[in-house]
């Protein structure tokens, strides 16, 4: 049984005892009724609030006296001392109910976040002698040869010794563009092998590999730090001073009044409403698909002054789409058809976007002699005519004269029968609601919006101009993003907060450094 279920059972038990005690106290007005209700109220208090009293005592020995546990203990025990038994039991019970609701909401969000973020590989294929063994990544030693098949995760950081492929690095870098790799290239654990079979020599043990690698106080704790000592001191003065300065004043009467003052001073509305308020906020966010790790982040969010964003997968969709077709002696339809046929057998996201833009059925019997070169493009014969689609390097290797296009995006040059027939511009699409989102947060006292991205300056600036980002810093490595976040932290006011919105594990340091991180 988990802790939340135990807590729920404890609170329900305390609630039942309290209800019985209240019924006896209300309807059995005699000595028997008094003692029975007293026992029931004490039991309800002990069951629901013993842990709070124990925490208060433990914290006192650790030098942390004036917190919400001390406040609740003094007020509720004081209520029992002056005969207000229902009040003492009820306040402690309601406080625990509020804490349970907040704990439940936060715990649910944390479980969801953990499930979403688990990208660790479950196994590694290790070549040992003539056999390939499937083992736990922790059991792989430095220098061993691992085999990564198409569709599998890279289990450990390694260097390729045989094969070439494209790696999906989105989980690590947040970038949608697959990385082409071949012999001699370093690959990081957590990436996904998209096409070719790879043999690689491990460089690090699993525990040291890439994939295996703010403290705000609760509001009521901060409130109690100042409020509790003030109330306790006032109660002590109320108990001691009047009997000393007022004639005929009895010490017993003023102690009773001091205890009454303590009970009245206990901020019941706050100790119940604060956890319930955060529970409501966390619950409302989860209905919108937003998982909140803790209530303190909601509090910090209300003080945000600067908002920093990653680009790919955050402000943009992280997927490719054909944005522009430039022809040279042929129609757009013929250019797009040629590219789609050449790219038909490739699973590269760029190839997929071209076929999607073409949108017609491809007659595969027309395609033959396919040659795909990682990092360059694809060559194939269409109805016995050699055609090619790829980057500028591919055209140069084929001896086809092409003028480099100055575009902010990925340019795919297309040739047919040895002649250049045009290019296709493919870019990452801006999310439909990105501009509206930036406009909306600027209305919420956000003084400055900043884009921090690993993409090139030209593309980043173009996206920023379209959606209204104030400041752009491009071509940044993860460590450089951290430096920019540190600089922005110094720009905000003392009480202001910085929020960072990122996508991918490479943004983890920036997300951690910011006051509030969105992933």
> Which stretches of 5+ consecutive residues score pLDDT under 50?
none
| Separation, N- and C-terminal Cα atoms | 31 Å
Strand content: 15-25%
Kindly state the mean pLDDT as a whole number? 82
Number of helices: 16
Number of strands: 20
Shape summary: elongated
Task: List the strand order in the largest sheet.
Answer: 2-1-3-9-4-7
Helical residues, percent: 40-55%
Rounded radius of gyration (Å) = 33 Å
- Helix/sheet category: alpha+beta
Tell me about the biggest sheet?
A: 6 strands, antiparallel
Topology diagram in text:
Blueprint: H1 3-27, H2 31-61, H3 68-81, H4 85-117, E1 124-128, E2 131-135, E3 145-148, E4 158-162, E5 165-168, H5 170-173, E6 179-181, E7 186-187, E8 192-193, E9 198-202, H6 219-245, H7 251-265, H8 268-287, H9 295-301, E10 304-309, E11 316-327, H10 332-342, H11 349-358, E12 367-373, E13 377-382, E14 385-390, H12 392-397, E15 410-416, E16 419-430, H13 434-442, E17 448-452, H14 457-467, E18 471-473, H15 478-491, E19 497-501, H16 508-513, E20 516-518
Parallel strand pairs: 10-17, 10-19, 17-18, 19-20
Antiparallel strand pairs: 1-2, 1-3, 3-9, 4-7, 4-9, 5-6, 5-8, 11-16, 12-13, 13-14, 14-15, 15-16
Helix pairs in contact: 1-2, 1-4, 2-3, 2-4, 3-4, 3-7, 4-8, 6-7, 10-11
Give a written overview of the molecule.
The chain is an alpha+beta fold and 519 residues long. It is built from 16 helices and 20 strands. A 6-stranded antiparallel sheet has the order 2-1-3-9-4-7, with no helix packed on it. The chain has a 6-stranded antiparallel sheet with strand order 11-16-15-14-13-12. Strand 13 (377-382) and strand 14 form a beta hairpin. Helix 4 runs parallel beside helix 8. The longest helix is centred in the first third of the chain and has 33 residues, at 85-117. The radius of gyration is 33 Å and the shape is elongated. The model has no long low-confidence stretch (mean pLDDT 82).
